[in-house]
Amino acid sequence: MAGAASLEGIYGSPSPELVPGFVKPVRLSPLVPGAAAIDEAPGGAFARLVVAAPPGSLERRFVLAHALRALAPGGELTALAPKAKGGARLRAELEAFGCTVQESARRHHRICVSPRPETTVGLEDAIEAGGPRWLPDLEVWSQPGVFSWDRLDPGTALLIASEPHLAGRGADLGCGIGVLARAALAREAITELFLVDIDRRAVAAAERNLADRRAIFLHADVRRLPPVIAGLDFVIMNPPFHRDGGKDLGLGLAFIAAAAGVLKPGGLCRLVANQALPYEAALREHFSVVTPLGQSGGYKLCEARR
Predict the structure, then answer these.
(1) pLDDT tens, residue by residue, 193-207
(2) φ and ψ at 17, to 5 degrees?
(3) What is the count of structural domains for the chain?
(4) How far is it, in rounded angstroms, from Cα 116 to Cα 119?
(5) Residue 129 needs a FRET pair 20 to 30 A away by CA distance; which of 64, 146, 219, 283 works?
(6) What is the pTM of this model?
(7) How far apart are CA 96 and CA 193, in angstroms?
(8) 124: containing domain
(9) Distance separating alpha carbons of residues 34 and 219, to the nearest angstrom
(10) What values do phi and psi take at 30, rounded to 5?
(11) What per-residue string of b and e applies to 10-26 under the rule 16 or more CB within 10 Å gives b?
(12) Phi and psi for 157 in degrees, rounded to 5?
């Protein structure tokens, strides 16, 4: 990315219907394996950036601040979000950074366009507020924007409390910041654990949280796992079921299929899920034995053996 103020970049996955086209843009989303990181982009490198702004205010202001930092003087920023998921605040947030904003509305989105101002205000504060931080109550590193970034997810807590008897080589699919993996690695019988997540920030936090030679960290899509993850003894997982702000049952089903695909015959999958999610049929399709382990607090535990 060095040099060139002719670069164009995209953060997130904005609808092509809402923003003008690009020619070979730089992808910057933390949710796209292999994409560049907006917080590592050189200052002034981009002539144009489009940001599909996240719904969380700390994460959104962090991204917008880095986008303005990465733009060349006079470079153009287009930021957009659904009105009910941060879009209504976009203009005020950009103006607080010193931007002169033209705002429009389309398809329930607010779309804000601004040149990078000669003088910006408050970028450093927004970057610090939305950056990685130590959470003393959980004793972990985390970052606004990752799953359950500032609290222990109750599903994960239920899976940890179930104390699965794990041994050998395994994987934590959708590992987040590594809380579940940290509990699992307390067992000396585990020889190797792959921590996989589609969120680059979560994987980076997990690496800081787990100083364990048995842990192997991968920024990857569980639906397209690398061949090295195969022949495993166990998989643990709390699959996601939301994408782009809406429910997506296909994600959980893909996690179940992926778990079955990487386990050796007789391998064990321990899964926690929202009680209402209909995963049992998929588990029976991919595994020879499926055992419900109970429910608590709106979540259910299942054990499946390949």
Answers:
(1) 999 999 999 999 999
(2) -75, -15
(3) 2
(4) 8
(5) 219
(6) 0.93
(7) 45
(8) 7-129
(9) 8
(10) -70, -10
(11) bbbebeeeebeeeeebb
(12) -60, -40
